[in-house]
Amino acid sequence: MEQEQIWDVDAAQRYDTPGDGMFSPEVLGPTVDRLAEFAGDGRALEFAIGTGRVAVPLAERGVPVTGIELSLPMIDQLRSKVDEATIPVVVGDMATASAPGDYSVVYLVYNTISNLLTQAEQVECFRNAARHLTPGGRFVIELWVPELRKLPPGQSAVVWHSDPGYIGLDTYDTLRQHVVSHHFRFDESRQARLTRSPHRYIWPAELDLMAQLAGFQLESRHADWAGAEFTADSRSHVSVYRLPLER
Q: What's the alpha-carbon Rg for the chain, to the nearest Å?
């Protein structure tokens, strides 16, 4: 499926869950705090800004935020919250689109870099971030760790989350380093709703090499936005890459 097909009007209208899940204060608070710290007195650029889950509260903190977004329905949902003057958005692919000006931080949250389905596109995303940053600027990526250790021989699927009314299932193609996330939502009826999204998973070491190819160095890696230690058992990470002060 193309990204435009996944992030359509229906997906945009269902995306926001105010106060719950990734929109909960305990998730958003540390994310916005850390990005505001990285932005300092400069500007922030969000790749794949979506409906503004992070950008809107970051802008409310006084950080000038610009976005790049491929999905017009997601931008329309963002526009129901803030206008173009408050958070400008460039329509385009985060691997190639350009936003005007220079930024002290570029960020990609909630696994979004994996929406780029080839290694070449993911490397170009790093290079695009570097083109937008001032010397010493940071590229911040939040990404999950592939859970291949949960795959027994001969099995290609992992249930990664289950709640009453919801099951999250990933199917892996280890040859191409692809995964499809299947989201099943259901109630007491016999019908379930399925949504799917394809991804290319990236190991932390591979992500670091992509960064080096674009001129970055790894500054820090933690298990979450609050700064928890990243270990072999961490399910995700927040990695901060920095450009040299002089190019």
A: 18
Give the chain's count of helices (H) and strands (E): 7, 11
Alpha-carbon distances, residue 206 vs 194, 202, 209, 240 (angstroms): 31, 6, 5, 14
* Residue in the structure block whose two tokens are 């409906």: 51
For 45-69, the DSSP string reads EEES-TT-TTHHHHHHTT--EEEEE
Handedness of CA 94, 97, 99, 102 (dihedral sign): positive
What distance lies between CA 40 and its chain's CA centroid? Answer: 21
Enter the DSSP assignment of 150.
Answer: G
**pTM for this structure?**
0.89
With a CB cutoff of 8 Å and minimum separation 6, the contacts of 127 are: 213, 214
Place of tokens 């803030």: 82
Please give the Cα distance from 191 to 168 (Å, whole number). 16
Tokens of 243: 């450009």
Residues 140-161: what's their mean pLDDT?
88
β strands within 61-112, DSSP E: 65-69, 89-91, 103-108
Note the residue count of the chain. Answer: 247
pLDDT in tens, 182-207: 989 898 888 898 888 899 999 999 99
